[in-house]
Amino acid sequence: MPAKAILISIGDEILYGQTLDTNSHWISGELDSLGIRVIKKITIGDSREEILDNLAESEKLADMVLITGGLGPTSDDLTKPCLTEYFGTQLERNEEILSHIKGMFERAGWEMSESNAMQADLPANCTPIKNSIGTAAGMWFDQNDTVFVSMPGVPFEMRQMMKDSILPKLKEKFVRDTINHRMIRTIGIGESKLAEIIKDWESQLPKTIKLAYLPTMGAVKLRLTTSGDNATTQKLVQAEIDKVIPLIEKFVYGYEDEEIEEAIGRMLKAKGMTLAVAESCTGGYLSHKITSVPGSSQWFNGSFVPYSNQLKNEQLHVDMKIIQEHGAVSEPVVLALAKNVRKEFKSDVGVSISGIAGPGGGTPEKPVGTVWIGYADAKKNVAKKFQFIRDRELNIKYSAVAALNMIRINLDKD
Amino acid sequence: MPAKAILISIGDEILYGQTLDTNSHWISGELDSLGIRVIKKITIGDSREEILDNLAESEKLADMVLITGGLGPTSDDLTKPCLTEYFGTQLERNEEILSHIKGMFERAGWEMSESNAMQADLPANCTPIKNSIGTAAGMWFDQNDTVFVSMPGVPFEMRQMMKDSILPKLKEKFVRDTINHRMIRTIGIGESKLAEIIKDWESQLPKTIKLAYLPTMGAVKLRLTTSGDNATTQKLVQAEIDKVIPLIEKFVYGYEDEEIEEAIGRMLKAKGMTLAVAESCTGGYLSHKITSVPGSSQWFNGSFVPYSNQLKNEQLHVDMKIIQEHGAVSEPVVLALAKNVRKEFKSDVGVSISGIAGPGGGTPEKPVGTVWIGYADAKKNVAKKFQFIRDRELNIKYSAVAALNMIRINLDKD
Fold this sequence. Notes:
The structure is a homodimer.
Chain A lengths: L3 E7 L1 H4 L7 H12 L2 E8 L3 H14 L2 E5 L10 H8 L4 E3 L1 H14 L5 H4 L3 E3 L3 E3 L8 E6 L2 E6 L3 H20 L4 E9 L3 H7 L1 H5 L6 E7 L2 E9 L3 H18 L3 E4 L4 H12 L3 E5 L5 H7 L8 E7 L2 H8 L3 H7 L4 H14 L4 E7 L14 E7 L4 E7 L4 H22 L1
Parallel strand pairs in A: 1-2, 1-3, 3-8, 13-14, 13-15
Antiparallel strand pairs in A: 4-5, 6-7, 7-8, 9-11, 9-12, 10-11, 15-16, 16-17
Helix pairs in contact in A: 2-7, 3-4, 11-16
């Protein structure tokens, strides 16, 4: 039986719909990959009674209770006093945490307030967990047969703390059998289409291999899970991967943790090539995805966001007549943008995007979501039209993924 | 007392971290704006026992229980059989819903299966709610003093159903008093510093006004909540806002729903000015934030991401000698970038960012997180150094917010 976890998110702002709780989603995924089973997620407000009731209720049901939120320095943050009350203990100032907080303020050159110092006051029975990038320490409690962990609600602080200390501690305490995940990463095909292509392979999979389809924006990950990470199961899984790859090869861009923008970087580096981008409707998002990869400066020269038609013309020499005749969202415009940004930025590959992200700007001929993507290298200058049907934010994000996939496909052809 | 709601999301894919639950977030916001108080959100898996337990538990605590998910045509969808069991009733085929489903399949030209027809089998005691864009009907139950509503988990089907029928029905049945939120949006000051500045004001607030600090990246929102949205409470809240604003004026960029990038757009539009950006270490993220605002093409001309030093020199005429002498992350470089992108892109304001996002590239003098931001308009050309202490992703995001704040401060000075 896998260990059972309950996640509690605390905060009025989540209950009132002002903050989207992404913490419990992220934690779920991490626990799942350790083979820990999340049986329930609970969100409650900054209310003493609710917090105490749900701590007690969860203790009955789960092996571990992971709590996020309510650890700020202000008086509406109740998690710490409630935990202190729940465990019948009192607060004690922790000198190590205090000096960590002091150090953070010193390095940043800020003045430290008494309410910040009070963040070093922790329930006497907890094991403090250092927050390497914030002032609210985490707390680990062992209560009879249940572990309680309290973490800050700020997503990046929580994630760092989980990765640095909590996940390793949970793994040590609760995980007997190791769980082994292998991931095949596909792009440019939908979940149901993919399922159709591989259904015969799926039906013959050994019972010891669990298959999951994990769709994300414009991409689907296939996850093969086995428990007991030994040589035999590893070989078994690899044999199944070798069987399925020929069926879906043209959609597979990578394996395991590799994101599509990392795969592009890997491909460009292997070929000793550099990339330049001219993106209009995506407004910098494609460049942001690319530069989110550490070390991308090795293969990415830069990008240009010609949001106005004037800049498309003046900076990237797209003929005004072409823009007037075909519109900025058109094949000749993205062809010219890709070709010219490649040349101007002295790069091996040029990519361009021009589209109508919405909500305004659509016409019957070119509705919101119409996006042209262009590609140019030494041998090719090609373009493709996409029709997305989402809102502004999603049209932008899907366009960037489609452009990355277009780079992949064209680099593969070389 | 406002009516109390509990939201239950059902689905293994949410518990396992495969699907981010945005439904309960959206429903919370809608109920909040009606003045219905969400007291708890629960996520459970596709498990009969869990569903029945949580229905019973929720009935004790809430006036309404809104359930999403588990209504699909496959056997792992358990919501409908569980509701039928919970209310001690049986399924009956609803002819009206059946003909709606038939019509949908006919219009799409698909063949209808028996499992689709079974979606018209509904618990005898429910009021069916038509799903105008899908096959899973909603169900409304009045059980003693609690209303139960079951909806599909597909976000756009659920939203349509809520808007078309459920929200109006809930409003009619439950809404006496409305809840009123006012929001003051600050930037460039931390939560605890802000709390210290306004602590006297906070302590004299009338008990009927509830104050919350909502920190997000580089910004803190102050939310004042009252119930009973009538002229008296509105005046009372406004009087408190008028009192606090003078204390924190220089940090306040806007009110209610306005994001900082929207505030920048509003300010530029009011002055009839346009903006151009040259961003290096942020790699397009600042431009992405700006262009996430619908209609930003009215005041944003475009941006340039000169990721390599060569491009800084060739495209934006930053003297190579300056780059060699001071480094790309330096005051003279961001001053030149801001000035030159303003001129090249024929804009009223130019903003530039150059920094070390990490993880590599740091030195003892310029550690990871060192970021210079430049600003130029017709009268000024200024720069400021920031020291962030986060990881690559966060250094990028904080830098973009700092640049937006720098635009705000300098526009304010004009």
